């Protein structure tokens, strides 16, 4: 399955780059980038089943908990791109990861579900319950998503960490872009995709 | 007695006939007459290597896999040497048709290393210069010496390259050495429960084992054969100590707890706890099948292994020549070669820009886990092996 947001990620990645995928899951994004961009890819993943799936797909994967730190594993600037796809909201210290990842790669690509999406706002602000929908499919008491944020939140964290936003795209539930999304991204973007780097 | 024997044969036959066993295998011997220069400065004028093979070599000769054994292992990695043999080879859990190292795809070779006591030239062999057994005069061999000897075996078998070299523990060290010494002759390196060098604690355990052997009054400076005896107690103690370090605290608790053999304490020094009984059994049975001088040699090979040493203690530089793809595997409860040690290898490989995958297997079996059929471990190993495509060079796009 090729997800529409992968097309956006793919467009930002130069052919033959060295790519690190943090929280790579079963490796399908790596496989996609390998095919479309002929990248050199390695993933980090904690879950046994997902690690095994990567190895079965012939992909390189390191079994590790992202929360225990990534700078131990990789030399400074050893990658061109580091991707964190739908993962930072589940981390104990997303701010540490953002800082660390841009010490080992030139550019970072981060995707996450947007807490500012109108449906989330309606569910919390008008209906008075925690968001529970396609993008956030877990009940509040049993969810991996412990650090949800909006586009605004993410951008101010980047600013605080001295990170520059090079590109931003938002997609709807079908993970497509549209004019409405571009005009009001923090209202209508269900998922956000950022390209960031360290401020020079 | 003749009534009993067939029963044993039947037990063996059931396993031999299993669809996932390589069945009956016969060891073979290769004789080498060109001298082999060793790291210690001495050389072996001629030597024999005993080995077994499983599966069929393909026409291109490109599906060969080398298995490297650990401290007390040998060439008998899978299957049975006789219908009556009750236990299969030491890594039968992973080698066979449909198993992770699938003998219906691969031609698998396993040999007894130099200095061994299972048929390859070692302390029990006759020294051609004296016409007496080498005994303690057998030269100290290193992991690199073994790899050079294994390379000659590869050529003897008419092979130019291994699709994979695989080993656990001391065997994993041989795999690392292969990737450094003969980078063009190994396409995939599978390094399991290994370390880039021993820690001081590891060396300390080895030294206690050696002292147990050497200080046994029956050791006779290693010439126990000439004295018509064996350092049984020393070798037994060495093995008992080894076994403690191969198991984890949890595994011992689960296996033995504080269970008493007689159901009550007797306030004496006889075997009372089940764990004592187990260790004594492991120790005494080992004495019957292993040579004390070989044990000393193997522990020294472990101690000396340190490929980074010659590269300014930089493992990344040491591994820089490697061309293989790597799979590194460790086990959470292994404290002899802890996951931390495998991570050192992986970090160095990543820094050197090598293609590497790393799996850390949850297990409470300690160091011994690498020989066990743990579903996730075997899934990773099988998945990695299944992706070895010997028709192609390593895929260019994978880091």
Written description of the protein model:
The complex is a heterodimer of chains A (200) and B (399). Chain A contains 8 helices and 7 strands; from the N terminus they run H-E-H-E-H-E-E-H-E-H-H-E-H-H-E. Chain A has helices at 4-12, 28-37, 48-56, 94-104, 118-126, 151-160, 179-183, 185-188, and strands at residues 18-22, 40-45, 60-63, 79-85, 105-113, 163-171, 191-198. Chain A has a 7-stranded mixed sheet with strand order 3-2-1-4-5-7-6, sandwiched between helices. The N and C termini of chain A lie far apart (37 Å). Chain B is of the alpha/beta class and 399 residues long. In chain B, strand 11, helix 3 (170-181) and strand 12 (188-192) form a beta-alpha-beta unit. The termini of chain B are far apart. Chains A and B meet through strand 2, helix 3 and strand 3 of A and helix 10, strand 14 and helix 11 of B.
SSE layout:
The complex is a heterodimer of chains A (200) and B (399).
Chain A: H1 4-12, E1 18-22, H2 28-37, E2 40-45, H3 48-56, E3 60-63, E4 79-85, H4 94-104, E5 105-113, H5 118-126, H6 151-160, E6 163-171, H7 179-183, H8 185-188, E7 191-198
Parallel strand pairs in A: 1-2, 1-4, 2-3, 4-5
Antiparallel strand pairs in A: 5-7, 6-7
Chain B: H1 5-16, E1 28-32, E2 36-37, E3 43-44, E4 47-54, E5 64-68, E6 95-96, E7 101-102, E8 107-111, E9 126-127, E10 132-133, H2 143-156, E11 164-168, H3 170-181, E12 188-192, H4 200-214, H5 232-246, H6 249-255, H7 274-289, H8 292-304, H9 315-319, E13 325-331, H10 339-351, E14 356-361, H11 375-386
Parallel strand pairs in B: 5-8, 5-11, 6-7, 11-12, 12-13, 13-14
Antiparallel strand pairs in B: 1-4, 2-3, 4-8, 9-10
Short overview:
The complex is a heterodimer of chains A (200) and B (399). Chain A is built from eight helices and seven strands.
């Amino acid at each position: 399955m090729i997800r529409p947001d992968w097309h956006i990620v793919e467009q930002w990645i130069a052919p033959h780059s060295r790519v690190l995928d943090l929280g790579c899951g079963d490796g399908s994004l790596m496989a996609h980038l390998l095919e479309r961009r002929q990248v050199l890819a390695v993933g980090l993943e904690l879950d046994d089943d997902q690690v095994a799936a990567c190895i079965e797909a012939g992909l390189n994967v390191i079994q590790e908990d992202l929360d225990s730190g990534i700078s131990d594993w990789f030399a400074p600037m050893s990658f061109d791109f580091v991707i964190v796809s739908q993962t930072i909201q589940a981390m104990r210290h997303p701010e540490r990861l953002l800082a660390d990842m841009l010490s080992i790669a030139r550019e970072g690509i981060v995707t996450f579900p947007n807490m500012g999406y109108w449906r989330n706002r309606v569910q919390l602000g008008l209906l008075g319950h925690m968001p529970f929908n396609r993008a956030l499919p877990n009940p509040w008491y049993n969810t991996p998503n412990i650090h949800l944020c909006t586009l605004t939140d993410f951008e101010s964290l980047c600013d605080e960490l001295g990170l520059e936003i090079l590109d931003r795209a938002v997609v709807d539930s079908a993970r497509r872009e549209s004019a409405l999304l571009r005009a009001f991204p923090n209202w209508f973007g269900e998922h956000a995709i950022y390209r960031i780097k360290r401020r020079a | 007695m003749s009534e009993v024997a067939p029963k044993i044969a039947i037990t063996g036959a059931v396993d031999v006939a299993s669809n996932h066993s390589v069945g009956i295998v016969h060891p073979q011997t290769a004789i080498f007459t060109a001298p082999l220069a060793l790291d210690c400065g001495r050389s072996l004028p001629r030597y024999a290597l005993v080995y077994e093979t499983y599966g069929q070599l393909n026409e291109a000769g490109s599906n060969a896999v080398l298995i490297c054994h650990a401290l007390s292992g040998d060439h008998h990695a899978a299957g049975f040497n006789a219908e009556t043999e009750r236990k299969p080879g030491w890594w039968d859990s992973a080698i066979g048709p449909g198993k992770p190292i699938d003998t219906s795809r691969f031609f698998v070779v396993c040999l007894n290393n130099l200095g061994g006591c299972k048929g390859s030239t070692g302390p029990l062999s006759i020294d051609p210069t004296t016409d007496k057994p080498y005994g303690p005069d057998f030269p100290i061999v290193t992991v690199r010496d073994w790899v050079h000897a294994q390379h000659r075996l590869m050529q003897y078998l008419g092979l130019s390259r291994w699709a994979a070299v695989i080993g656990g523990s001391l065997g994993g060290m041989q795999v690392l050495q292969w990737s450094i010494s003969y980078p063009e002759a190994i396409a995939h390196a599978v390094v399991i429960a290994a370390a880039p060098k021993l820690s001081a604690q590891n060396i300390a355990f080895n030294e206690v084992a050696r002292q147990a052997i050497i200080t046994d009054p029956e050791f006779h400076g290693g010439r126990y054969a000439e004295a018509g005896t064996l350092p049984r107690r020393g070798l037994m103690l060495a093995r008992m100590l080894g076994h403690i370090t191969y198991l984890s605290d949890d595994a011992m608790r689960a296996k033995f707890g504080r269970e008493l053999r007689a159901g009550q304490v007797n306030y004496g020094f006889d075997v009372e706890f089940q764990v004592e009984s187990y260790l004594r059994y492991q120790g005494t049975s080992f004495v019957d099948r292993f040579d004390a001088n070989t044990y000393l040699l193997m522990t020294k090979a472990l101690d000396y292994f340190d490929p980074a040493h010659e590269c300014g203690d930089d493992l990344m530089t040491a591994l820089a020549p490697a061309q293989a793809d790597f799979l590194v595997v460790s086990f959470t409860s292994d404290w002899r070669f802890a996951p931390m040690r495998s991570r050192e290898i992986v970090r160095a490989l990543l820094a050197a820009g090598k293609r590497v995958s790393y799996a850390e297997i949850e297990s409470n079996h300690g160091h011994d886990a690498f020989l066990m059929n743990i579903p996730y471990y075997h899934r990773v190993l099988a998945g990695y092996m299944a992706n070895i495509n010997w028709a192609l060079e390593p895929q260019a796009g994978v880091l």
